[in-house]
Amino acid sequence: MKREIIITSDGSSTIYIPEWNESYHSKNGAIQEAYHVFINAGYSLVEKQSINILEIGFGTGLNAFITYLEAKKSNTQINYVGVEAYPVSEDEVNSLNYIEELNAKIEKDVFSLMHDSKWDEGIEISSQFKLTKRKQLFQEINDIDCFDLIYFDAFGFTLQPELWSEEIFQSMYDSLLKNGILVTYACRGSIKRAMLKAGFKVEKLPGAPGKREMIRGIKV
Fold it and tell me: Does 96 map to a domain?
């Protein structure tokens, strides 16, 4: 399936799939969305010095890289697991402009290492940040009581409704520790209902630019 690099409204790049008319991040701003949804509404709420994070849709590595930058500021230990069934290519990675847009040129090697590291093997990106990329389908996730935080960044419901089912959210619920948090850019009645049935306490929050609302779930 053909994929293109495009520039979103905040100047940061993303990958666009013409056949689906779908992009990996919001066209209204890839970096803006990442901070709004995953950092401000998720990461910033976890009051621990050691945080276990699961990302559903590792994709371009933007969420992992931004989390690394935030953790470095606060000297927080991160164990980051990124799940991705269809990894992006080396050429696509090299075409992304996150290093420049985040003013993170001194961390260029870190971003490269995140993508160059082997799949299904843990690696120390730094003394604070351990990354494990798992090449697997979301339906194959079977972790139990492992994570403080989930970044749920799958493709949209209209394209892949099976990724937003009660079964998927039950596995997300099971993989979280008590009081663990799941954040996602999406907000749809069927998604909220699926999360509630799985056991989450669900709240709607203001969405990233271009979206009215988003969802945050807590394992109670």
Answer: yes
Edge-to-edge order in the sheet of strand 147-152: 122-124, 129-134, 77-83, 50-56, 147-152, 176-184, 213-219, 200-206
Q: Is residue 170 part of a domain?
A: yes
CATH number at residue 94: 3.40.50.150
- The burial class, CB within 10 Å (0-12 / 13-18 / 19+), for 135 is middle
Find tokens 């910033």 and name the residue: 44
Q: Mention every residue, 6+ apart, whose C-beta is less than 8 A from residue 11.
A: 97, 101
Q: Which DSSP state fits 38?
A: I
Distance from CA of residue 53 to its chain's centroid?
Answer: 9
Provide the sign of the torsion angle of the four alpha carbons 50, 55, 60, 63, taken in this order: negative
> Is the confidence at residue 161, as pLDDT, over 90?
yes
1: confidence class by pLDDT, cuts 50, 70, 90: confident
Of 172, 128, 165, nearest to 150 by C-alpha is 172
Cα–Cα distance, 24 to 113 (Å, whole number) = 21
> Could you tell me if residue 89 is inside a domain?
yes
Measured CA to CA, the distance from residue 108 to residue 100 in angstroms comes to 9
d(CA 132, CA 118): 9
pLDDT, one tens digit per residue, over 34-93 is 999 999 999 999 999 999 999 999 999 999 999 999 999 999 999 999 999 999 999 999
